[in-house]
Amino acid sequence: MKFFRVLLVLLPLTLAGCSATVNLPQAPDANNPDCAKVFVRLPQTTDNQERRTTSSQSTAAWGTPAAITLTCGLAPVKVSTLQCITAGGVDWIVDESQKPVYRFIAFGRTPATIVTVDSTKASGATVLDDLGQAVQFTKQTAKCLG
Question: What is the pTM for the complete model shown?
Answer without folding.
Answer: 0.85
